Amino acid sequence: MHIDTIDEKIVHFLRHISVPVARFALFVVFFWFGILKVFELSPAGPLVIDLLQRTLPFMEPTLFLRLFGGYEMLIGLVFLIPGLERAAIALLFPHMIATFGPLIFLPSVTWSGFLVPTLEGQYIIKNLVIIALAFGIAASLHPLHRKPKA
Which residues of the chain have pLDDT under 50? Predict the structure, then answer.
């Protein structure tokens, strides 16, 4: 078998499985990290609470952490359901805004120097990969049917 044929078969296979694998990966990350917050076991919990106290100090921290974790679990579950990709991405958008918040509102926690993120900062910046994965899923969708102009 020629290398071009092998390459073609591998690419075809990866195209076939890439979206389901991406959806499952997003489910695992969001559901797993979310359930850790719900049970107050997440190492990100203190960061979430610090951000909450800086931005929404009127909300009870434990309740917010559990709601935030539940929201993450919901995002993960919705990514698994065929046909709900648009809803999952819509849920993802405000979550990403919130998760990038510490880079701005908690710089002493997320940066050790100019363009040098702490471990917490790196944890947040890796969300760019999640955004790119969601874009890839969105790119695989068929456009919604438009109503013809009358």
Answer: none
